[in-house]
Amino acid sequence: MIGDQALVVTCPHEFTLEHHHPLPPGHGEALVRVHAVGICGSDRELFHGTRPSEYVRYPVVPGHEWSGVVEAVGAAVPDDLVGRKVVGEGFRSCRRCDRCRAGETTLCAGGYEETGFTMPGAMAATLTLPADLLHTLDDNADLTAAALLEPAACAAAAALQCRTQPGDRVAVVGTGTLGLLALQLLAASGPRELLAVGIHHDHAHTALGFGATHFRRHDELAGPGEFDIVLEAAGGAGSAAAAVRLLRRGGRLVLTGIPASNAIGLDPTDLVTRRIQVRTVFGAPPQAWSHAVRAFTAAILDPLPLITHQFALSEFRTAIDLVSAGDPAVGKVLLHPGRAATTTGAAAAPAHRKRI
Questions:
Q1: What's the total number of domains in the chain?
Q2: What is the share, in percent, of the chain residues with pLDDT greater than 90?
Q3: How many angstroms separate the CA atoms of 326 and 44, rounded?
Q4: pTM score, two decimals?
Q5: Strand, coil or helix: what is 250?
Q6: Pairing relation of β-strands 214-217 and 193-198?
Q7: Residue 2: its pLDDT value, please?
Q8: Distances (CA, A) of 38 to 196, 204, 271
């Protein structure tokens, strides 16, 4: 039996494993037993101290990508939520300002608060949070795959901004987690062409498996292009500029990758003379979460092949080093708070996983 633990990043490059005391749910809250929690680039930034200071508060329990089962609920929460498989939104918005009332909770005027960055996250045995942030899953849902529904919700926010119609020519720049999940969602809309653009030819097989009609490397692109819609999900220094060159006149650009500090800017003259529509995405509002969960339930969205490594919570150092190494063969890395450490320091990924 694994004792309840929590991983606490006390300051950049420093963490401890502590005994975890579940926080009883208060009014409107639920306590969730965490099944799995993903590590993403934002968690890497948190650990290495490169995340902007206004978006982190040390010490903190990380973990904003997670899945689990409701163990208890507080007052004003239906009792039938207990025992349900769930995932949950990370942004702790005020739900009262104009932006929140319009459904744009990631733009809350009340200030930034997010699970795993400024509030305790899911790298612990349990997580207590407002019950209205939860999204319930089917009883037969795969909780390991469901841990990726947070990045899937971000991809869904971008896909909804694309407003694709059957027969559109669509391109996705970036073949990381966001880009690959976006491919699955966009493929369901019936595009005539769905190009995946990446930097590693090793990603081509996975991109095609996720719905792309073809794959090209960044350095193989020639412009100007004839695509109706381009979704940028890479966040590289030149990826937004490369994405806009793929568009036809009057095309639509959706930016969701957080740009690098040395990113090349877009040319406003080009945007105006070609009448390029530019939309941006930051996080996932409730509508995008609902869209991702529905797609997951309908088996349109299958994140499981993206998972390449799974570890116990006590193997965090190995896991974060793996995420930081930049190996193109490493996909999503998960931690399981209820799992014992393996003798080799790494747990096997699903046998059917695809190389990414």
A1: 2
A2: 85
A3: 12
A4: 0.93
A5: strand
A6: parallel
A7: 62
A8: 24, 23, 37
